[in-house]
Amino acid sequence: MSKLLAVGTVAFDAIETPFGKTAKILGGSGTFVGLAASQFGIQTGIVSVVGGDFPEAYLTMMNDKGINTDGIEIIKTGKTFFWSGRYHNDMNSRDTLITELNVLEDFKPVVPERFKDAKIVMLGNLHPLVQASVLDQMTVKPTLIVLDTMNFWMNIALEELHAVLKRVDVITINDEEARQLSGEYSLVNAAKKIHEMGPKYVVIKKGEHGALLFNEGNMFFAPALPLAEVFDPTGAGDTFAGGFCGYLAKTEDISFENMKNAIIYGSNLASFCVEKFGTERMQDLTTSEVTNRLQAFKELTQFDIKIS
Amino acid sequence: MSKLLAVGTVAFDAIETPFGKTAKILGGSGTFVGLAASQFGIQTGIVSVVGGDFPEAYLTMMNDKGINTDGIEIIKTGKTFFWSGRYHNDMNSRDTLITELNVLEDFKPVVPERFKDAKIVMLGNLHPLVQASVLDQMTVKPTLIVLDTMNFWMNIALEELHAVLKRVDVITINDEEARQLSGEYSLVNAAKKIHEMGPKYVVIKKGEHGALLFNEGNMFFAPALPLAEVFDPTGAGDTFAGGFCGYLAKTEDISFENMKNAIIYGSNLASFCVEKFGTERMQDLTTSEVTNRLQAFKELTQFDIKIS
Fold it and tell me: Which end of chain A has fewer CB atoms surrounding its CB within 10 Å, N or C?
């Protein structure tokens, strides 16, 4: 088992969906990555920043799940990053109602000593310079560096993004963003161009339409589990990434064949995340639930054609 | 091996895509279904109607592929159904430029004697009364009746559509149409409602996002093969249906497990169809090409997680 280091936001979310609305609840990409990775019994360290208003109970909950929070800086005089959004009826699009960066505005990530040798590093969706500064602090070259990003950074920090992309092994990105970054409409061609920017592995997330993994001409596809109801999609992408990294950290095998399994695990965990508001479902998720759903993924995708 | 009877259009298409445009070329749902099914060495009969302007060479080409065209009525004084469309840059949406129904307007399908005992019947996307009249002519109850339809018939002949749906085993329908027919946004719930309308099996086609097969709580998903270029999507859905029916006719096994294979074959053949304009690619497609691509589908979807 390898250590996993994840940098990302630990935040408050307030969410409206057709099923209801929440008060300020626990959210943030780092939180979802950590909760997903905690399913694998590995050592996961989160690097982030919160304000004095962040309840200690949330940190205790994470610690109870084996998530190391030493890297979550608490700025007593500041306020925690807050995002509020409203999902449309189809759950595939949303409006951002409020974004208060607060303590995130001047975030200088500090990697705790004991995670400077983490084999797997997950760089959550933050400014490319923040992502790079985490890599600069590693004392041992990680086995696998995974980066998540979004169109926002392509628009305001494209040069810095290209610089950090040269240093990473895996990029996770959604389909529209892959098209923007590459200038290619076909996802096959987009993956090829992004591959040339640095990452050997390109993971393209298509939300309810699943995820594609590309590596030097090889392709793998994991569907999203079709669900009767998607309650709240918030955090599904981060949960997917956390499951992917967590599985690789646990198995210590970064072959393409094993990455297929990691993608399936990511999709598996994401299918739970959307069943309740925020982190609720991920907090009470048990190993046997995950294992049972793995069986559902097998039934959904595996076939046995005798080629004659 | 079972006989397959397919009713559908045999037509002229004129197509514009970002890659170019065609003159009037061979098209039609019956044509694509027949060409796909011809990959399986089964007896396939097409029921359709064309005008005196329809080149005999097209019928000869179909016969050479083992497709029986006795059920294609030729109305010497009439003109063949003609459709013209222009695809947008993303290839996922298109504008219809011309629709000339011509001989299709008064189409009265006549099932040839030797296909009245066909075990598999594919009712292509036509008026529900035309679909029903084909079933009325069968002298032996088919093992499997597959129906394709679209929003157009839901809008103008919903009652007749519901009546014929009670008589079919499998419906193939796209995602938006499944939502319209069921009034449910979630495809899982949509499939459940459509199931209650008659069909034991519901196949929801999602174009580039693959296809889902539902049957009494069981689900299977086949991705579309990610391609560098989609040249012309015309006929892909019909090719998918033809591959599905053709594989089931060949294997004579309509279990859910074998339908999984049939769905994969449908997706496999559809991935060839879009590589060239119209029927061009399907006309020169060889068995070894299909077998090789089956391997690509396996690599794309199969994984081997040891559940611990």
Answer: C
A230: which chain B residues are within 8 Å (Cβ-Cβ)?
Answer: 186
Helices A29-37 and A236-251 sit at what angle, rounded to 10 degrees? 40
Cα distance between residue B14 and residue B171, in whole Å: 28
A299 interface with B at CB cutoff 8 Å: yes
The answer, for B209 touching chain A at a CB cutoff of 8 Å, is: yes
- Please report which helix (H) or strand (E) contains residue B33, including its range: helix B29-37
Do the beta carbons of residue B123 and residue B147 sit within 8 Å? yes
Q: Taking the domains of chain B in order of start, what are their residue ranges?
A: 4-301
**DSSP E strands: which ranges in A113-250?**
120-123, 144-148, 170-174, 201-205, 211-215, 218-222
User: Which residues in chain B have their CB less than 8 angstroms from residue A220's CB?
Assistant: 299-301, 303
Greatest C-alpha distance within chain B? 70
Residue A272 φ then ψ, to 5°: -80, -45
A173: nearest Cα among A137, A127, A124, A135 = A124
- Shortest CA gap B301–chain A (Å): 6
- Residue B226 touches partner A, C-beta closer than 8 Å: yes
- pLDDT tens column, B106-126: 999 999 999 999 999 999 999
- What B213-219 contacts at long range (C-beta under 8 Å, 24+ apart), as own/partner pairs, is B213/B256, B213/B259, B213/B260, B213/B263, B214/B188, B215/B256, B215/B259, B218/A299, B218/B256, B219/A226, B219/A299, B219/A300, B219/B188
Query: Could you tell me if B93 lies within 8 Å of chain A, comparing CB atoms?
Result: no
Quick one: tokens of B282? 């399907």
Q: What residues 239-298 of chain B have any CB closer than 8 A to a CB of chain A?
A: 257, 260-261, 264-265, 291, 294-295, 298
Mean pLDDT of A258-283: 97
Domain A4-301, classified CATH 3.40.1190.20, yes or no = yes
Nearest chain B residue to A204, by CA = B226
Q: Does B186 touch chain A (CB under 8 A)?
A: yes
Mean pLDDT across the stretch B61-87? Answer: 97
Please report residues of A whose CB lies closer than 8 A to that of B291: 307
Residues B201-226: pLDDT tens digits?
A: 999 999 999 999 999 889 999 999 99
By three-state DSSP, how is residue A206 classified? coil
pLDDT per position as a tens digit, A207-250: 999 999 999 889 999 999 999 999 999 999 999 999 999 999 99
Give residue A308's pLDDT. 59
